[in-house]
Design a protein that fits this description.
two-stranded antiparallel ribbon, 5-stranded parallel β-sheet, alpha/beta, 7 strands, 295 residues
Length: 295
């Protein structure tokens, strides 16, 4: 598997290969999480995402919560916000936002098994959620977390009202989506930042894996290709073929976001391995890419 040259990329680099139809790809993703979610729960706990480690003594649980808090801090998400948690897994982040920040969260995932687990864990935690025995909802309190089996790329069919959410939150799920431009357009529609709902701009909060800009061949060979090699090896197993394409840069995704008419973006942040810590990334480079495209 090769890493594409960022100077000659196209949006097709973010789409699955033509030999892998989107429907089949989504079926594999669904099948993967139907099989693996209970195992992930024993391995990761309720938060099926990586953490932000600051010290060798950090536990994975503390680092996972620190990542959520970092995203809340960077996005300035207000207490009591309505949040759409895309790729919610078994609902760990949804419950955290409901319990600790009084948010009214709707979590969506392509896996019915994950919805089932999320509802049970949320009921056990005492947070208002879907009734596990019926299709109606309990009366929401100060914070709530509801869960639905919904394809993120067709979520506007499920949430037809524009401007329904203060925030669309997606953590380590963007890499699963074949058509990222479609997702960005749909997120724009359900956010209150839509032109008809400008009194309180909505927020799109994204956390995912991206490769750094201007990597040397040695860095690509030492750091990126091993990750892609693992993904390729996993892709040989039908139930695990769920990740898409070589890793791309943050600027590449920002340009797709810009092309999707979501242009009121704040500066992005990169917190990376090594000594760089948290730093601004991507914004200047994507501006150059936009200027080049207009030229």
């Amino acid at each position: 598997m090769t890493v594409p040259n960022d100077k000659s990329w196209s949006e097709h680099d973010l789409l699955p290969p033509e030999t892998s139809p989107m429907v089949a790809l989504k079926d594999r993703i669904r099948h993967h999480y139907e099989l693996a979610s209970e195992y992930y729960y024993t391995l990761w706990g309720e938060h099926i995402h990586h953490g932000y480690f600051r010290a060798p003594s950090d536990t994975k649980e503390r680092a996972q919560l620190r990542l959520i808090e970092l995203l809340i801090e960077r996005s300035q998400l207000e207490t009591g916000s309505t949040v759409l948690d895309v790729g919610c897994g078994i609902g760990g982040t949804s419950r955290y936002l409901a319990r600790n920040h009084d948010c009214k969260v709707t979590g969506i995932t392509i896996s019915g098994k994950q919805v089932e687990m999320a509802i049970k864990l949320t009921c056990d935690s005492g947070i208002n959620t879907n009734s596990p025995m019926a299709t109606d909802f309990t009366n929401p309190g100060s914070g709530s977390a509801l869960f639905h089996e919904v394809d993120a790329e067709t979520m506007t069919d499920f949430f037809p009202g524009e401007g329904a959410f203060d925030c669309v939150w997606i953590s380590e799920a963007l890499s699963h989506l074949p058509d990222k431009a479609l997702f960005f357009r749909n997120a724009f529609k359900v956010l209150k930042s839509h032109p008809e709902h400008t009194e309180q701009p909505g927020k799109l909060v994204v956390a995912d894996w991206f490769k750094a800009e201007d990597l040397t061949e040695k860095q690509l060979e030492d750091d990126i290709k091993p990750i892609e090699g693992i993904v390729h090896q996993l892709s040989l197993l039908p139930c695990l073929n769920v990740l898409l394409n070589p890793m791309q840069t943050l600027a590449t995704h920002l340009l797709v976001l810009w092309r999707s008419n979501v242009k009121n973006t704040t500066k992005t942040k990169d917190f990376a391995f090594g000594n760089r810590g948290v730093s601004e990334a991507g914004s200047d480079h994507v501006k150059e890419m936009i200027r080049d495209e207009k030229a």
